[in-house]
Write a structure and sequence with these properties.
- The chain is α+β, with helices and mostly antiparallel strands and about 80 residues long.
- The protein has one domain: YaeB-like fold.
- The protein is built from two helices and five strands; from the N terminus they run βααββββ.
- The chain has helices at about 10-15, 20-30; strands spanning about 5, 45, 50-55, 60-65, 70-80.
- The chain has a five-stranded mixed beta sheet with strand order 1-5-4-3-2.
- The longest helix has 13 residues, at about 20-30.
- The N and C termini lie far apart (about 35 Å).
Amino acid sequence: MPYVVQYNTRALAALQALPKRTRDFVMMAIEELMVNPKPEGSELVHEEGEWFHMWSVGRFVIVYEIHDRRLVVVVVDVVDETNG
C-alpha cells in the first residue's frame, strides 16, 4: 500500500522557491517516496533531538520523516547542497 506524502510549511516554501523545471525534478523524486520511503542511498540522521531521513537527489537533499503506522511520509525540507 502506498504512503501518503505531506509537506510542512518549510518544505512547501523551499519547493515554491525553485524554478519550475527543478521543482518538477524534485517532486518526481518525492513521489517515489510514496512507493519506497527508504530508497537506496537514503540515510537516517539524528539532528536537534529528532530523527529524520535524508535522501540526495541530484544536488538536492530531501529531508523527511516516515510514519510507518500511518503510512505517511512528511517532507520537512528540501535543501540545495550547493547553497548549504
